[in-house]
Amino acid sequence: MGIRVTGFNGGNNKADLVKSLGADAFFDFTKGKDILAQVMELTTYRAHAVLCFAATKQTYASAPE
């Protein structure tokens, strides 16, 4: 189906967890300057679906971008 699962969080320990659960990629918001550009590079055509479990309104609002 071409599904690419990605995770977003902060910290190397989260990256290890996400990848151990089978994610194709992990984006660390504490290190990345332009997360949206990184996602676009990985997906080419943007996300077709987003599951967002955000702790802040700002993060939740930016998820569909």
UniProtKB/TrEMBL annotation:
Residues 1-63 form the Alcohol dehydrogenase-like C-terminal domain. InterPro entries: ADH-like_C (IPR013149), NAD(P)-bd_dom_sf (IPR036291). This is Alcohol dehydrogenase-like C-terminal domain-containing protein.
